[in-house]
Amino acid sequence: MDTQQIADAPPPTPPSAAEQKRAARGATRPGDRIFLGLSRGSGILLLVIMAAIAGFLTYRAVLAISKDHGNFLTTLDWNTGANPPVFGIAVLAYGTVVSSIIAMVIAVPVAVAIALFLTHYAPRRLRGPIAYVIDLLAAVPSIVYGLWGALVLVPNLNGLFGWLNDYLGWTGIFSWQGGAARSMLTVGILLAIMILPIITNVSREVFRQVPQMHEEAALALGATRWEVIRMSVLPFGRSGVISASMLGLGRALGETMAVATVLSPDFLIHGSLLNPGGGTFAQNIASKFSEATEFGRDALIASGLVLFVITLLVNGAARAIIARRKEYSGANA
Amino acid sequence: MAKRIDVSGLTAYYGSHKAIEDISMTVEPRSVTAFIGPSGCGKSTFLRTLNRMHEVTSGGRVEGKVLLDDEDLYGTGIDPVSVRREVGMVFQRPNPFPTMSIFDNVAAGLRLNGSYKKSELADVVERSLKGANLWNEVKDRLNKPGSGLSGGQQQRLCIARAIAVEPNVLLMDEPCSALDPISTLAIEDLIGELKERFTIVIVTHNMQQAARVSDRTAFFNLAAVGQPGKLIEIDETERIFSNPSVQATEDYISGRFG
Amino acid sequence: MSTASSLTAKHPSTLRGARLPKWAPWAIAAGSVALGVGISAAAGLHSNIQWALIAAILHVLGTYVIAARVENRRQAKDRVVTSLVWVAFLLAVVPLASLVWSTVQRGVKVLDVYFLSHSMGVIADSEPGGGIYHAILGTLEQVGLATLIAAPVGVLTAIYLVEYGRGNLARAVTFFVDVMTGIPSIVAGLFILSLMLMFDMEPFGFAGSLALAILMMPVVVRSTEEMLKLVPNELREASLALGVPKWRTILKVVLPTSIGGITTGIMLSIARIAGETAPVLLLVFGSKFINANPFEGAQASLPLYIYQQYGSGEATAYDRAWAASLTLIAFVMILNLVARGIARWKAPKTGR
Fold this sequence. Notes:
heterotrimer, A: MetI-like fold, C: disordered N terminus
């Protein structure tokens, strides 16, 4: 009925008239249905993939954990070839968390400062090119970071590590026995460099959205540039910076190759950040994989499942903050 | 504390574009001076040169002199931050700090300078809010966010924030253009009271408003789009609206163009 | 109206504050760098990182002390933040510059036509020679297949979300696309691995493509969504009002309008997965030989080649790893540049 009415209507602009008539004759409905089906199907496929990832990982993980004679959460060992097998993720969880925290402690302030640099401090003519350079940082593959980290960064850190040992060694956290600087701190520094671009880019977007009028309000009161930032820019951008940081954290938690190339792993929890050793979920999978039996692979999958859940939580939290911020700023606009 | 503003030969640019050219005028203290003129004639730009806000925009620069009493705002060694403290500004759209309470909004300018006592601060906030005719409406919710107020109240909050630091001059850039008629009336009444204490310069699109609130009126115009805006004449408001000396002013006021 | 002259009571200027001259920040910077180098030389420190840190700390402190003495506390704070922000910027530039410099400098050593056109066939890690032909071939095939899967699924999903998406299904898809963006690449690899364990399969190129496709899909969805949202609704309505069915409106009006941006998004996501190593390590395993068939047998890939050459620990292998890195970076950067070029070229012309 509807299509009939459209067909009866006088043909509008000439060029499309013929096409429109053909379209209106009712051939449209299957076409629409197929197209909707295809696009909706793709969306559903994505959901299915996500469900399958969770499902299959859980299945293989259960296979492995059910035969684990250690405690999967607390055992400080990864011996899947032994009889009975004994393995646990305590060392990996510790290493993953510690390296990510170091990365965040370094990267977040620097990234926020660079974002401010790009929006408020850099000479206007330089802003575009610098933002582009930051984008390039993001485009460098992680394996290249790893190679650079292992062959350039590590030898250059010896001096810094010696220093930290001399002045802060008494804390225990910064004590160092010497040797190659292939430790959690090195990993943290490298991860910081790698997550810098994503935190910078999201923060810069947020800072750029600060309404001009809020900044002018502070300026007109006789605020210095820093005071304008403190009064107008940072309060407005705070939640954005938090979610940017969490996106960066998600990256750092799951990074594999850069850690695998730089870290000299063992399966112990070390108090010092400077001595080599420890491991992360992703690094452990990459390093142990090639020698693992099928059962060993299942055990690695079990640790991967933990990593999957952690990154899901972190990313979910970041997205939730962004979503809430949208509502909040919408109400005030 | 009201001060006189003496502008001579002022030209302002946006990059290579000349926005206003060779403007000279005197703004008397304790009076209201209104700037009128068609859109794009540079009256807002000129206003922003009076507290060095113009140079905040990219490529904004200024030639000429702006004397505040005897001191050139553009002289060497002058700190633009101090200039803006002495020459306050109220904007077209009310812009209270969204994350701050009403109290903190008013106190914001004082806190920047650091030297205040807590009790003093409360006094100044109360005095400023009273000065902006807002005290009675907000005294019970000083800790609520300023963004929860109505548009007219927000604008008066911004005025309170501006006068809290006791500036010498108050610049208003179309302060009522985003407000309803009742709020507009409240602001206009307020301007009448504030001129007892401050030198006030107001940019307005609304000629009735200029006639109602101002003592002197300056008419700006531009020869053509893309040409710099110029000051056509400045005189007592009464004369501008009854018997201007330039034909263009009369044409504009009588609605023949613009 | 008023007799103004009587009001101009004289009082000390409040507008004029002592100001540091314009060159002061540069002088402080130069001074602290000189001091930093001097102290390091005197103390016999060898690492560049140390003298740079000393200089940075001296710069920030020096700025504060000098500004606080000459100007005032507020100005000093402002200047300190300015110097901190500059230091942070330099802090980010240094690693990038070092990375690019060392990759180019060490990469050009063995990078030549021979390197690009030969495999590692019979070359031991400790020997010079060999090349990355097999790795380039593997990467191109794996990434190409991944794109063939991910691009259509991603674009169609974005179309669903923008053009049809209402209700719970769309909301769920949006949410899980966000979640999927955050999946670590190694987890995607483990997922395909768990499937392969199920069916007792040996590593092969296409398995890697599947994992890469999982990583690529959400990126394509996001960027395509952004582009489709930029198409003005008036355009859709104009077409629909002519009686053109919705699917033809999307194909003939919406997609052509946004095709530049969509292409850019797909190319950027290709650039991203081309550098992924972890899933390839798990699923494709790597090989020294040329294997043109992505559906059977282990294959090499460029990022994996870098990892394995690095892992062998031989100086000759390091050279090859750097040369392969240079090739990979060049590939990724060219994709980036072309993608951005397309974006600029196809961008809707605005007045500005």
